[in-house]
């Protein structure tokens, strides 16, 4: 039998992205700042995932840049978990593969 089509993801409520950013900031040290946050496609229907580029705000801290993977259980979740930490060094090459 044919599989039913996947359920449409719920549309993001106004302000939901800002709430997610606030929750992600709580995972970081006080001196860290999010330089870039990208919402990713998730293999699980309701899970919300972000990839963050994080580094300290202090001058000369470029050597401490890291990629963080952050997960929310669902769109309206009030807490998030850190799923990946990848420090970026001057000779690091990152390849993101897939169609997302």
From TrEMBL:
One example GO MF annotation: actin binding
Entries under Pfam families matching the protein: PH_SSH1-like_1st
Biological-process GO terms, alphabetical: negative regulation of actin filament polymerization
Protein name from the UniProt record: SSH3 phosphatase
Slingshot N-terminal domain residues: 20-100
